[in-house]
Specification:
2 domains; 373 residues; 7-stranded mixed β-sheet; 3-stranded antiparallel β-sheet; binds pyridoxal-5'-phosphate; 12 helices
Amino acid sequence: MNKIYLDNAATTPLRQEVIDEMMLVLKENFGNPSSTHSFGRSAKTVLETSRKSIAKRIGANAQEIIFTSSATEATNWILKNAVSELKVERIITSKVEHHATLYTVKNLQKEYGIEVDFVSILECGSVDVTHLVDLLSKGGKTLVTLMHVNNEIGSVLDIEKVGRICHQHHALFHCDTVQSIGKTEINLQELPVDFIVASAHKFHGPKGAGFAYVKKGIIMQPMFYGGEQEKGLRAGTEAVHQIAGMAKALELSYDFLTSERSCISDLKEYCQKQLVANFPDIKINGKDTFYNILNVLLPFSEDKTAMILFNLDMKGIAVSRGSACQSGSVKPSHVLAEILTEDDINKPSLRISFSHYNTKEDIDSLIDGLKGI
Ligand code: PLP
């Protein structure tokens, strides 16, 4: 069976060059980067070259990049540090954030009694910036955490504008850039952002590697105690091969950004046209969404909701209902709950997310698969 992967917002296939790079590092640079002998030094060189390469691609300084195992880990650390060390008393976020943010904020509210405000989400899926300004105008040391690209519907935040507003109100700004890093230009030299987070597996790198960007001058406390790795902020021997794979993946994503973005945008447009042609009553969830994510409300009855993914999977086609962590559940998505009507929320929605490895034939197969339901 020819398998078709259209769930690239959940994770992406590794590029061959990334696998080659990791294999090379596993073989040639197995030393512990904290060792002072030549084996350790060569592993340390891989680590620091990777850090510089990642920093350069996003306009950061190498010292501002802290390697983690995932974006979830980075977000937990940053938000907790903001409350416990930077004395943030209030967090402003939105109800459409990833659970990595939402559950961390909820837990901080329980543990530290901080105030939490939710900025309104417009019908199109975007953040209501006027409401954000309103919320920011009432005092207290505040951190704003809003995602750049929503992983379920692909709505896009104007980071530049939101960052500027946050800083005008003396609030810190944390932006979850998991879905946008490697897929759009990010220049932290110009963006008014204090923290961002990323996960390598979203841009054709390995799982188990991510990073936090912490703007120079912000003092962080360690997330783990132990050795001096990551300037003592994250003790534990570094996963050198995964970090090298992440740096390679980011480098290639930016080298090929223009051509891959154009190829993926064409695929999304083709998919949307085919869906509308074959299912005239289909609705698109969200407006002006990111070029690799298409979320649609299918004109099928509610009782088909649970069956659709299963039926497509039987045909070798992988799509999802929302974020990977909730795709197995028939519970309505917390993101769609913010933008759909009561009636529509229980109807079947599908997230189709593309990469440059997809083809128009993949989309034709998806349409055939859906027609057979
Ligand atoms: N934020 C967003 C927007 C995501 O899409 C994801 C993963 O789906 C995460 C955070 C968490 O990433 P990870 O599971 O790699 O830590």
